UniProtKB/TrEMBL annotation:
<feature type="transmembrane region" description="Helical">
    <location>
        <begin position="96"/>
        <end position="114"/>
    </location>
</feature>
<keyword id="KW-0472">Membrane</keyword>
<keyword id="KW-0812">Transmembrane</keyword>
<feature type="transmembrane region" description="Helical">
    <location>
        <begin position="53"/>
        <end position="73"/>
    </location>
</feature>
<keyword id="KW-1133">Transmembrane helix</keyword>
<protein>
    <submittedName>
        <fullName>(Mediterranean fruit fly) hypothetical protein</fullName>
    </submittedName>
</protein>
């Protein structure tokens, strides 16, 4: 019993700190996101920095692996044949290619997840702007939609079924407890 109370208290405390974004912090978000001044911040996703870091690190690593694979492929017959050691990351020379393809597949999955995860949502007079982390490093992309254009998406194969919504024409993952108030969440869904 004591553990569940602790987790509930921690979650509530985190949720309250998310709601009370100071004017200085809000101003930095508005400036960074290039949002008009009349828009209010109503949603701030957790772990936005970690999502960006994971995307950038996985991309850099995939580029390094692709560069190594391209170098190996173009110079395979030019380099002297060496005895391959059966120690380390791969046990056969062909295993490197499987590793590279698998790592690139994981990077693509991370990219798909990042493209569906809005970092912040702003509201003004029934219009909304969702800010996403861009596919390019250190940039963001924006998606504009209106009140009532939000629909819940249900799919059997989606592990985040209860958090998947269609914002206008873009499918997104939203965590309802990170809205400023429950009224903001319900208003965005089209309820009065």
């Amino acid at each position: 019993m004591q553990n569940s109370h602790f987790f509930r208290h921690t979650r509530l405390k985190h949720s309250q700190s998310n709601i009370s974004v100071g004017k200085k912090k809000r101003g930095s978000f508005v400036k960074t996101d290039n949002i008009p001044a009349e828009y209010e911040l109503i949603y701030r996703a957790p772990m936005g920095t970690y999502i960006s870091i994971a995307k950038n690190i996985s991309t850099m690593t995939a580029i390094i692996i692709c560069t190594g694979a391209a170098y190996t492929a173009t110079n395979e017959y030019k380099l002297p044949k060496q005895r391959f050691e059966y120690i380390g990351l791969v046990s056969q020379p062909d295993d490197f290619w499987y590793f590279a393809v698998g790592f690139i597949a994981i990077t693509m999955i991370i990219r798909i997840f990042v493209s569906k995860y809005p970092l912040r949502i702003y509201h003004s007079n029934g219009r909304y702007i969702a800010v996403y982390d861009s596919q390019l490093p250190y940039l963001s992309s924006k998606h504009v939609f209106s009140k009532g254009e939000v629909k819940e998406v249900i799919s059997r194969f989606n592990p985040w079924n209860n958090a998947t919504y269609r914002l206008g024409n873009r499918t997104s993952l939203l965590l309802s407890q990170y809205f400023r108030t429950p009224a903001d969440y319900n208003h965005m869904l089209g309820y009065n």
